Amino acid sequence: MSVRAIGIDFGTSSIKFYKNGEGVILHEKSVIAIYNKVHTFAVGNEAFEMYEKAPVNIEVSYPVKNGVIADIGNMQAMIDYFFQQMDGKRKLKGAEYYIAVPTDITEVEKRAYFDLISNTNLKPKKIHVVEKPIADALGMNLDITKSTGTLVVDIGANTTEISVLSLGGIVLSRLIPVGGNRFDEVIINKIKKDKNFIIGEKSAELIKKTIGCAYVNDDSMPIYGRNLVTGLPSEITVTCKEIHEALIELFQSIVDSIKIILERTPPEISSDIYKMGVYVTGGSSQIKDLGRFIYEQLGLKVNLCEEPESTVIVGLGAIIEDPALAKLTV
User: Fold this and answer.
1) pTM of the entire structure?
2) Between the CA of residue 15 and those of 45, 137, 146, 227, 239, what are the distances in Å?
3) Quick check: 309 and 284 in contact, CB under 8 A?
């Protein structure tokens, strides 16, 4: 491809950029810090370091929630900042842009992503929209242009998107509000209720990644926060059993939603899925033994990938680098 092309994955938790010929050129947290409600103070990883620690005159937030842009102004400020940082070295003006968007959202919500790029000063040559399940499948090296049916489950930060694909298109799709942030929320509530102890979202995320598991084991870890009884900073130990009790209902709701999609899947595609299994990706799919839990609930082979956070941006890269896949854009 002679023209410059940029792929962008606007994830809830992180934002990623791909440039043809170079690969992934940016992978940062999708967070922005605003000073006195007007000025951009920090973005990306730098802003994430301030999350839950900033003074009252600095607001730190995630502009993307539940797969859609929740705060257009902050999202525009963040994307403008990243473009400004990269444009000097990489000449992003006049490039073609490929944007990944969830399938099961409204046309207005999809249009917001399109307008985000249009409103920058980079004068994009053309903007292509790619549905995330298609990018996910390509990022896992699946050939979805053939008539073979494929089931992809993307467990992200705010949502889980379950999709059946065939012949380069989406046969069925379902977006549910269950993801990594919801996992963190129930961990916070469980520890507050059972131990009269308050922790922050970053601590909950650390617990989830360290001892979170779809099955009970003997793991435990110390965690720091505030004792609700004394009001003082303190330390407690949490166990895998306690975290499992908090998370198991959410794991079950994901499986139940997969079952609903499978019940609606045409029989010929069902036979393909039975042979090939379920493809599970997304950053929140990395919880220990979650693949095993899905397998035991569905009786279908579960295919996990090595870098589940990056399948969407790698899939966008595949479309950018291979002109034959251009037909998969909207």
Assistant:
1) 0.92
2) 10, 19, 30, 35, 32
3) no
**Tokens at 142, concatenated:** 């699946």
CA pair distance 194, 191, nearest whole angstrom? 5
Q: Which two tokens stand for residue 286?
A: 């990395």
The span from the CA of 58 to the CA of 85, in Å, is: 22
Q: Give me the helices (H) in the chain, please.
A: 44-50, 72-90, 107-118, 132-139, 180-195, 201-211, 240-264, 267-276, 290-298, 311-321
- What is the torsional sign of CA 262, 280, 283, 189? positive
Phi, psi of 20, deg, nearest 5: -60, 135
Distance (Å) of CA 11 to CA 30, 64, 132, 287: 7, 7, 10, 19
Burial class (CB in 10 A: 0-12, 13-18, 19+), 106: exposed
Three-state DSSP class for residue 175: strand
Using CA atoms, how far apart are residues 169 and 163, in angstroms rounded to an integer? 10
Confidence of residue 1 (pLDDT cuts 50, 70, 90): very low
CA 143/CA 150 separation, integer angstroms:
9
| CA count, 13 A, side-chain hemisphere, 158 | 16
**8-state DSSP, 289:** T
For 18-51, b/e burial (b = at least 16 CB within 10 A) is bbbeeebbbbbbbbbbbeeeeeebbbbeebbebb
**Pair 318, 327: CB distance under 8 Å:** no
- Write phi, then psi, for 312 (nearest 5 degrees): -65, -50
Q: Which residue has the tokens 């929630």?
A: 65
Name the DSSP letter for residue 204: H
d(CA 63, CA 265): 34
Residue 287 contacts residue 211 (beta carbons within 8 Å): no
Residue-wise pLDDT for 78-113, tens only, equals: 998 998 888 665 667 788 999 999 988 888 988 998
pLDDT in tens, 215-270: 999 999 999 999 999 999 999 999 999 999 999 999 999 999 999 999 999 999 99
Q: Output the six-digit token pair for 128.
A: 């292509």
